[in-house]
């Protein structure tokens, strides 16, 4: 996604690190760059607002449950595939991975 306007910080960089911004997991200097970008880029600001709303909804609905590490890894892996533009079929999303069983 890009608004087509030149910015000091590129839209793709902002969107690639949006959750780091939302989770306050980036240095202050980078947070300041992102805040400045949101002030001048309405498409990125809109995406930020949407992701912030989803994060709040998930926290409200599921915030009290511990997420298993393997589930988190699967979700993050699929999100990364989607962000990179790769197609993720419905089967890939719903199918459990096959694991070898030791006898």
UniProtKB/TrEMBL annotation:
Residues 11-44 form the Putative zinc-finger domain. The lineage of its organism: Bacteria, Bacillati, Actinomycetota, Actinomycetes, Kitasatosporales. This is Anti-sigma factor RsrA. Pfam families: zf-HC2. InterPro entries: Anit_sigma_mycothiol_RsrA, Znf_put.
């Amino acid at each position: 996604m890009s608004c087509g306007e030149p910015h000091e910080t590129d839209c793709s960089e902002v969107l690639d690190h949006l959750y780091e911004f939302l989770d306050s997991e980036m240095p202050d200097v980078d947070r300041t760059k992102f805040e400045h970008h949101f002030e001048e880029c309405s498409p990125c600001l809109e995406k930020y607002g949407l992701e912030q709303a989803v994060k709040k909804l998930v926290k409200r609905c599921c915030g009290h449950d511990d997420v298993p590490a393997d589930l988190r890894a699967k979700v993050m892996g699929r999100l990364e595939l989607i962000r990179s533009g790769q197609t993720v079929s419905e089967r890939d999303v719903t199918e459990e991975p096959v694991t070898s069983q030791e006898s």
